[in-house]
Amino acid sequence: MVQRKEGREGVARISFSLHPKLQKDFDRITGLMGYEERSKALQIAVQNFINDFQLKEDPDKNATGTILILYEHDTRNIDSKINDIGHAHRLVIVSSLHEHLDEENCLNIIVVRGKVRKILELEQELRKLKGIKQLKYSYLVVER
Ligand code: NI
Questions:
Q1: How far does residue 2's CA lie from ligand 1's centre (Å)?
Q2: How does DSSP assign 45-91, residue by residue?
Q3: Handedness of CA 31, 37, 38, 42 (dihedral sign)
Q4: What is the average pLDDT score of the chain?
Q5: Which of 57, 80, 87, 97 would disulfide-bridge 109, Cβ 3.0–4.6 Å?
């Protein structure tokens, strides 16, 4: 960020550098998502970025959310390992859904609720598994 000044209603106006490819993608996605203004999309992106880190800053908060994992079911014992992890972390798992996407790929959607610390432990266990192709999460704080 190279510039910051106070604008109307105490809103900070900033300018910063972006790689042209990143800017192009950002503008395209902003349009696809129906945002009329770049700044609105950017505010949401920044808010999500901050929320993700705030959750990790205070692991005693309660949160709820989902973990998505995409994996190849042919990877040695992966279904069994995911099952074992699920049993070990059952107190924060509300429910889960398994979708056979194609011949090789499976999607698990895991709904979680509990202390951030416990949810992150589950996330880390899953992340370490060989054969996980993608892991995404979304957590919301439900109380302080
Ligand atoms: Ni499957």
A1: 48
A2: HHHHHHHHHHHHH-TTSEEEEEEEEEEETTSTTHHHHHHHHHHHTGG
A3: negative
A4: 89
A5: 97
Tell me the CA end-to-end span of the chain in Å, nearest whole number.
32
CA of 118 to the centre of ligand 1 (A): 26
Cα–Cα distance measured from residue 14 to residue 77, given in angstroms and rounded to the nearest whole number: 50
Quick one: pLDDT band at residue 52, thresholds 50, 70, 90? Answer: confident
Ligand 1 centroid, distance to 95 Cα (angstroms): 16
**Alpha carbons 134 and 28: distance in angstroms, whole number:** 23
DSSP lists the bridge partners of residue 136 as 68
SS3 5: strand
Q: How far is the CA of 68 from the centre of ligand 1 (A)?
A: 13
Burial (CB < 10 A; 0-12, 13-18, 19+), residue 92, is buried
Residue-wise pLDDT for 93-120, tens only, equals 999 999 999 999 999 999 999 999 999 9
